[in-house]
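Researcher: Next entry in the queue.
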Amino acid sequence: MKLPEYAAKDLELTVTRALEEDIGDGDITAQLIPAEQTATAGVITREPATLCGQAWVNEVFRQIDPSVTINWQVADGDLVEPDQTLFELSGPARSLLTGERAALNFLQLLSGTATACRTYADMVATTSVKLLDTRKTIPGLRNAQKYAVTQGGCYNHRIGLYDAFLIKENHIAACGGIDKAIITAKQQAPGKTVEVEVENLDELEQALNAGADIVMLDNFSQAQMKQAVALNQGKAKLEASGGINTQTLVMYANTGVDYISIGALTKDCRAIDLSMRMI
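Model: Structure for this entry, 279 residues:
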C-alpha cells in the first residue's frame, strides 16, 4: 500500500533516529555471531489486532542491510489473529537480530493505534459520523500515527498547526471575538479550512454567521448537540469533542453531528504483543 505524502515524507528520518538511539556505535551482542551466518525468522502476533507499520519495518531493514528479504503475509489494515505469522525475513543473522527491536517497536505501536481506532470505528459503523484523531500524538511519530488511524477505519483531523485553522478560546480572546478571528483567518489564508471551538449555542450562532467551515462543540451535552444540529441547518460541519469515550460514543454519534474527535485514538493506545522467532 502506498503511503500518503504526509506519512512518507519523514519515514526515512524517523527510522534513522530510531536506529541511532538503539544501535549507537554498534550492536555488540550481534557481533558474537559469525558474520557469514544466515538465518530465517518469522514475526507473529500474540493477540488479535489491526495491522499497521509495514513500511516502517521495511525501512528498518533497508537501512540496516538491504540484502535482508522480507516476505509479508498480511497488509496494513488487515485483521490478524493470535499466533498468525505476519512476515518472514531472511538474511545475515546479525542483521535480523540488530533490526528486530526497532522494527517491532514501530509495528507494535502503529498496530496498537490502528487496533484502537478499529474498536471505535466499529461502534459507529451504522451511523454517518466520522471519527477524527487529534494532535495528541507521540512526539516524533505524528505522521506515522496519523497514518495508523486511517488503517483502523478512522480519519485525520488537521495534521499540524499549518494545514487548517482551529480557533479556540484564547485565540478568540486575543483576536477580539469570534467574527474577527474568522474574518482574519479567511483573509490571511484563503482556501484553508477554518474551524472554531464554541462552548454554547450563542457562540455557535456567532461562528455560523461569520462563515466558519467547521464548528467544534466543546463539551456539549447530548441535548445541546441536538439543538446545535437543528440550529446549524447544514450551514457548517459540526464536530463533537471533549471527554467522549466508548460509553458515550454511540449516543453522541446519534445526535446528527458530522464528526467526533477523540484524543484517545492516538494518546491512549496500547502496543500489540509481537514476537520474532528464528526458524
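Model: Residues 195 and 214 are 5 Å apart (CA to CA).
Researcher: Noted, moving on.
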